[in-house]
């Protein structure tokens, strides 16, 4: 005869409330890769590699989420992206 042991595991689940807003950057035919990369580094505090990857995704896919967070944090960043001539919105 064999003995089987049942183990009950307790799992802690943390929910992030209010962190479901995103800044989505859209492709355009006006801005250069360098301008988009520099703007993402300055405004969204991306690393150079992250900004470059986002710009490539935007170019080939048409859009990319470049920042997530609380609305109060994202509004000024989205405004700065728009002032820099980029196409972006908070969703």
Name some characteristics of this structure.
three-stranded antiparallel β-sheet, alpha+beta, 91 residues, single chain, 19% strand, 3 helices
What does this protein look like?
This protein has 91 residues and is of the alpha+beta class. It has a domain at 31-90. Helices cover 43% and strands 19% of the residues. The protein is built from 3 helices and 3 strands, in the order E-H-H-E-H-E. The protein has helices spanning 33-44, 48-61, 71-83, and strands at 21-26, 63-69, 87-90. A 3-stranded antiparallel sheet has the order 2-1-3. The termini are far apart. The mean pLDDT is 91. This is Clp protease ClpS. Keywords: Hydrolase, Protease. Pfam families: ClpS. It comes from Flavobacterium akiainvivens. GO terms for molecular function: peptidase activity.
- Counted by DSSP, the helix tally is 3
Helix content: 40-55%
List low-confidence stretches.
Answer: none
What is the N-to-C order of secondary-structure elements (H for helix, E for strand)? EHHEHE
Approximate shape: elongated
- Spatial strand sequence of the major β-sheet: 2-1-3
**Residue-averaged pLDDT, rounded?**
91
The first-to-last residue Cα distance is: 59 Å
What's the Cα radius of gyration? 20 Å
Number of strands: 3
């Amino acid at each position: 005869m064999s003995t089987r042991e049942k183990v009950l595991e307790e799992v802690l689940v943390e929910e992030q409330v209010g962190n479901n807003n995103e800044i989505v950057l859209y492709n355009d035919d006006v801005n250069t890769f360098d301008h988009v990369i520099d703007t993402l580094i300055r405004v969204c505090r991306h690393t150079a590699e992250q900004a470059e990857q986002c710009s490539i995704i935007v170019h080939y896919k048409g859009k990319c989420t470049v920042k997530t967070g609380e609305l109060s944090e994202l509004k000024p960043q989205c405004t700065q992206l728009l002032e820099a001539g980029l196409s972006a919105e908070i969703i």
